[in-house]
Write a structure and sequence with these properties.
It holds the Pfam family GH94_b-supersand. By secondary structure, the chain is of the alpha+beta class. About 30% of the residues lie in helices and about 25% in strands. A hairpin with a 3-residue loop joins strand 11 (about 150) and strand 12 (about 155-160).
């Protein structure tokens, strides 16, 4: 159930792209469209009043002294708006939430008499119903209304379209869309307005409907109406309130497959008591999901991080669409989202993550690319919704980052030995060719020469992704940019474009892979690794090939042809030591190549160039219209250890000079290039300071903080996070609820809120780097990088979280008020008892954690001196 409300109760309601109860809403339609969840009161002797503020007369008073007093209160996935009208002598309080047990949105409307005399009014809920696919918002809007079959029952208006009319074709519709109502005591409504045309009248509108203005009589139950736009108009019997008295009404909006479900929902939420019980159940549910708590010396920061921790939950529900700003097509999550969301899941709710990770590898092709659309079921993948051949060169990076984090948190190195299939479709040779023999009725899995579905280890999948990327280079011997990297808007350099930034990221990953192979040998005694025969051609012992772009391309091309339609199914056995050595050599060559060729010095500042455009030209450095610098280029050279200590410090100075702007939230994604650079990406067509073109893009800013913390630059990393948090906290400028947005625009306003991978990375950075609470091969270690100013008045800082399925509260005590770099861990206490003493960092073995009781919180105190 994906529902959205704003302070006027505008916003849509859907279960999928093809099943919207309310009309799909984009950011502009929030103010341009008059559709909302309205609730009218016709007050005897005074006229009509909207309890949500959505009437033409009330809208005319906005920005004037006559504007009504409004208060919004919200918690995790519930919303309440309180409105006061002194003219009418009434106030309204409207609670909105989705309960846990049914696909329904609840509105509880409380109308109170705030005057000194009796008031009589008639209440009418007025919710325009859409009841179809989002595809029909423009295409066949009227025609699809002809499919509507509308009827009224004792307490509901039910719409049952005869057919679906969208990209899936004309099929019999199986869904019922409805709005139901009752008083707070469970009484049925007086009648209904089931048709938009009759409700608003000729020349009327949703802000001034004829049925309300002229107090028209509603129809009763048992009415059938075919072929019109549906209206969820529900009118109640007139009500008289004495001074201070209150009357409650309950509105239920939902989607069901049969009428018995609608009746069940009506019984479940028919009274105020039912609704409030359901609200408490929902609050308890989301509170359990949200099991990470932060305590520093800044209470606002603690609450900010609480809301950030909600965001990964929302993204798993909504994907990258279905909120007003997130108009990313037709819903769902992409490949990158799938892996990054798991980072937060590993912290908050690690149960089931192992199988999820294994299943996700089914999206990898044997040529190292992957399916880009996630199916409805876990482990189900689609090549691309529009059958467009597209390769994002960074996609191979994220699975290893997440898998390695899982191994560190759990110690489960065996996951690398689990097996899964490879994705297969008509896109072959890394998207360069189409397999004309492919048929859509074939199962999307790679087969071997015996026509059996081929399965390889997770380690093999990771090797495939990284080795193919290593050989897929451009003329400067960096990995080709292809369709784009992490920055999807760098999408116009697929021929000669190169991403130095993510070449560095792959180098860091190659080192990680080598270390994991060494762990397999050390812990499991695996001196040999089995991989599919064809992959052996990418493990070249001849290091001279590293410098030869032509030979690299030939090597990759030959490999892709050996597995174009199938693989042999034969295996080769490699020495673990030799394989780790080969990966390390490749990584070190990349790092040296970048340092030798991409380090830029302009005046007193130096940084890395991160890209080449479609003319093969370097993107960053000194240019006629100003110096050019991109944050992404610096993040991955720092994070991968490509940059030396001296280079990191130079990058920090350059980023502060060219990218940092406090009034818009900190570090911009890039400087102004002063051109529509159509040989690199669409981002340069955007206005500077917006989205990918020079905005403060939270995801990469947080990754910059993460990289700095990893390299020991805690003060500089904190500066990045603090700037983002301060911008959010400055509500008069940011204009968003708590949490981190995708980006801040040129005016500092938060944009594309909630559905952003920045939240997972911010949680990861604050917990594992700032607080330094993290796993190390399954053991719990403490490496705090908290600054002195982050401790509270008692010189403490705490983190509550789950580790090894145990609830832990870790408290750092900085008794001598030392700064980071000056303090060290002296004692670690678990439930009051000493665990260990070390000179640099603390560690508790996993077996000790697993031996603790599972149904209580355990206190860990880390003494810093």
């Amino acid at each position: 159930m994906k529902s959205v409300v704003n302070p006027y109760l505008s916003g849509d309601f859907k279960t999928s792209q093809n099943s919207f109860l309310l009309q799909p809403i984009s950011s502009e339609e929030l103010h341009a469209n008059k559709v909302s969840r309205n609730f009218w009161c016709n007050v005897k002797g005074k006229g009509e009043w909207s309890a949500t503020g959505v009437s033409s007369s009330q809208q005319a008073k906005v920005f004037t002294r006559e504007e009504e007093e409004v208060t919004l209160r919200a918690g995790v996935l519930w919303h309440s708006i309180h409105r006061v009208s002194k003219d009418m002598g009434l106030s309204s309080s409207i609670l909105s939430f989705v309960p846990m047990d049914h696909q329904v949105e609840i509105m509880k409307v409380d109308i109170q008499n705030i005057s000194n005399e009796e008031i009589t009014f008639t209440a009418t809920a007025a919710i325009p119903l859409y009841c179809r696919s989002a595809d029909n918002i423009r295409d066949h809007r009227h025609v699809t209304s002809l499919l509507h079959r509308i009827k009224t029952t004792g307490n509901s208006i039910i719409v049952n379209p005869t057919l679906t009319f969208d990209e899936r074709g004309h099929k019999k519709n199986e869904l019922l869309y409805y709005v139901s109502g009752s008083t707070g005591e469970g009484e049925c409504p007086k009648g209904f307005f089931p048709c938009v045309e009759k409700y608003i009248g000729e020349g009327g509108s949703f802000e001034r409907p004829e049925a309300i203005i002229r107090e028209k009589e509603p129809v009763g139950e048992g009415i059938f109406l075919d072929g019109y736009e549906a209206m969820g108009g529900i009118q109640f019997e007139p009500c008289t309130l004495k001074p201070g008295e209150e009357k409650s009404f309950i509105i239920r909006m939902g989607i069901a497959t049969k009428e018995s479900v609608i009746e069940e929902v009506g019984l479940a939420y028919s009274t105020v008591k039912d609704v409030m019980n359901a609200l408490e159940q929902a609050k308890e549910h989301w509170e359990k999901k949200q099991n990470v708590y932060y305590e520093t010396g800044d209470a606002d920061f603690n609450q900010f991080m609480y809301w950030v921790s909600v965001q990964p939950i929302l993204r798993r529900i909504y994907g990258c669409s279905f909120l007003p700003h997130h108009d990313y097509g037709k819903g769902g999550r992409g490949w990158r989202d799938l892996w990054q969301d798991c980072l937060a899941l590993l912290i908050m709710n690690p149960n089931g993550v192992r199988k999820m990770l294994i299943d996700n590898f089914a999206g990898v092709r044997m040529d190292g690319t992957n399916a880009t659309i996630i199916g409805e079921q876990q482990g189900e993948f689609i090549a691309d919704r529009n059958n467009i051949t597209r390769v994002w060169m960074d996609h191979g990076v994220w699975p290893l980052i997440t898998t390695n984090f899982y191994i560190e948190q759990t110690g489960d190195i065996d996951i690398l030995l689990e097996e899964n299939t490879y994705f297969y479709d008509k896109q072959v040779v890394r998207g360069e060719e189409i397999d004309t023999t492919f048929t859509s009725d074939r199962k999307p899995c790679l087969i071997d020469k015996e026509n059996h579905i081929y399965r390889g280890s997770i380690l093999e999948h990771l090797l495939v992704q990284h080795l193919t990327a290593y050989y897929d280079v451009g003329e400067h011997n960096h990995m080709r940019l292809r369709g784009a990297d992490w920055n999807d808007a760098l999408d116009m350099a697929d021929q000669k474009g190169e991403s130095v930034a993510f070449t560095a990221a792959y180098a860091g990953n190659l080192i990680t892979l080598a270390k994991l192979i060494q762990v397999l040998e050390d812990q499991k005694g695996m001196k040999e690794i089995k991989i599919v025969k064809e992959l052996g051609s990418l493990l070249q012992e001849e290091t001279q090939i590293y410098d030869d772009v032509t030979k690299k391309k030939e090597c990759l091309h030959n490999y892709c042809y050996t597995c174009k339609q199938e693989v042999s199914g034969d295996f080769i056995i490699l020495s673990s030591e030799a394989l780790a050595r080969d990966l390390t050599k490749k990584a070190e060559w990349i790092k040296e190549h970048i340092k030798k060729n991409e380090w830029i010095t302009v005046g007193n500042h130096s940084w890395f160039n991160g890209y080449y455009d479609n003319h093969g030209r370097r993107v960053e450095g000194e240019f006629e219209k100003g110096n050019r610098m991109m944050l992404t280029s610096q993040v991955f050279t720092i994070m991968s250890d490509t940059a030396t200590k001296e280079q990191v410090e130079a990058i920090i100075k350059a980023a502060d000079e060219y990218l940092y702007e406090e009034k818009v939230g900190g570090y911009r994604l890039n400087t102004n290039f002063y051109e529509v650079k159509d040989d690199l990406g669409r981002m340069f067509g955007f206005a500077y300071g917006h989205k990918e073109n020079g905005a403060v893009f939270s995801h990469m800013a947080v990754m910059y903080a993460n990289a700095l913390y990893k390299r020991g630059y805690a003060k500089e990393g904190y500066k990045v996070i603090h700037a983002l948090y301060q911008q959010v906290n400055n509500f008069e400028v940011s204009r968003i609820y708590p949490g981190i947005p995708e980006y801040f625009n040129e005016e500092g306003r938060g944009m594309y809120h909630y559905l952003t991978g920045a939240a997972s990375w911010l949680m990861l950075t604050v917990i594992t780097e700032m607080f330094g609470v993290k796993g190390s091969k399954g053991n719990l270690v403490f490496e705090p990088k908290l600054l002195k100013q982050q401790f509270n008045s008692k010189n403490n800082a705490s983190l509550t979280m789950n580790f090894a399925n145990r609830n832990l509260r870790v408290t750092y005590q900085n008794v001598n008020e030392k700064e980071y770099g000056d303090y060290q861990i002296m004692r670690v206490l678990l439930n009051g008892e000493d665990i260990m003493v070390t000179s640099h960092k603390g560690r508790i073995d996993r077996k000790v954690i697993e031996g603790l009781e599972a149904d209580r919180y355990h206190e860990i105190v880390v003494l810093l001196e």
